[in-house]
Sequence to fold (261 residues):
Amino acid sequence: MSEQPLVHTTVDARIAVLTIDHPPANALSLAVLEALQGALSAALANPEVKVIILTGAGRFFSAGADIRELAELGDCHSARTFADRGQALCNAIADAEKPVIAAINGRLVLGGGSELAMACHIRLAEETTELGSPEILIGVSAGWGATQRLPRLVGQGRALEMLLTGARISARQAEAWGLVNRVVPDGTVLQEALTLAGRMAALSGPVMAAMLRAVRVGERQGAEAGLKAEAESFGLLCENEDWREGTRAFLEKRQPVFQDR
Fold:
């Protein structure tokens, strides 16, 4: 009997849904990281995909890194390799030139699962979800980006309180702090993410990619570099068919039909 895939991918209406399926808690083992990396790369390379949604099967988005694997890391090299693998996946999500939406389902999103969600461009969470970075409670440090992404999302003081105590916060608190974009009723997060993704999928793919790039450049290189990237994209996009279609449709008082070119 063949093994069940750790990540399921469905593509419909220009939207790819990547679902982690590693029961009971969708722990992020090295095998799951590898499966996610492959699924993400395939979705990014697929010209039929314009928006990607990341979610979890069952009762969890992801409860974090596989603690059994952490416990077996016996030296600095193997631990660094584990951190590098998780960071590579999170960086690939953050650097994606297609929007990636985290549809955060289930009761707990902790540690590596939280870091995975933070790497996504947009995060939706269910009402009873709790989020946290509890690595310190088991004598482990965050390794997949929380020390960098969490302060940028919620501010340094709040991030340090979470990182240095391991405290969890509610979805509503995460929304108030900017860690998630929106809280939705339990059981509806995937549908809400699909609705949001559908709105994006109707828009110009090259424009979305350009804006994602400009935001990323500004975040990493500062506002001056970000503004330069924005202006460069603005100039290049002027020659696209989508630019002409969008402006013409506005003047003709009709909905544009973008062709992604």
In short: The mean pLDDT is 96. The chain is about 50% helix and 15% strand. The chain has two domains: 7-201, 205-251.
